[in-house]
Amino acid sequence: MANEDITPTREVGSKVLTKPLPKVLDELEGHIKAADEASKRANESARLGQQAAADSITASKEAREAGEKYAEVARKEAEKAMAKAEEALVKAVVKRLARWDWIATLIVINLAIVFGAVMLAFALAQAL
């Protein structure tokens, strides 16, 4: 045991009792202030984020309502256009049917059907 090394060991990097207490307290106070400022900035960022989220929700609701309104207006305009187109088609058909050449064609077709029916009846009477 007499040969044991009795030289004191030094811990590398240890700062215990290497600075005066007032300086340590000043540094600690600086760190506390920096942490407080960081906390305030974080809270402000969170508040701004919440406000931005609320604003975007409001804007999306307004956009949806505007879209629904414009869709309803477009649907009504389409219905009006369809009604006008149907009315124009009916007028065109009535106009064409009222012309004498169509009436004459329909009379000829009806007479042809009647003539065909008479011929068929005559042929059936002959066959019996």
Work out the radius of gyration. 50 Å
- Sheet/helix structural class: mainly alpha
Helix content: over 70%
Distance between the termini: 149 Å
Would you tell me the overall average pLDDT? 84
Low-confidence stretches: none
* % residues in beta strands: under 5%
Number of strands: 0
Quick gist of this model?
The chain is mainly alpha-helical. It is built from two helices and no strands.
Features of the shown structure:
128 residues, mainly alpha, 2 helices, 83% helix
Describe the secondary structure blueprint for this structure.
Blueprint: H1 21-98, H2 100-127
Can you walk me through this structure?
- This protein is mainly alpha-helical.
- It has a domain at 21-98.
- Helices cover 83% and strands 0% of the residues.
- It has two helices and no strands.
- The chain has helices at residues 21-98, 100-127.
- It is rod-shaped and about 140 Å long.
- The model has no long low-confidence stretch (mean pLDDT 84).
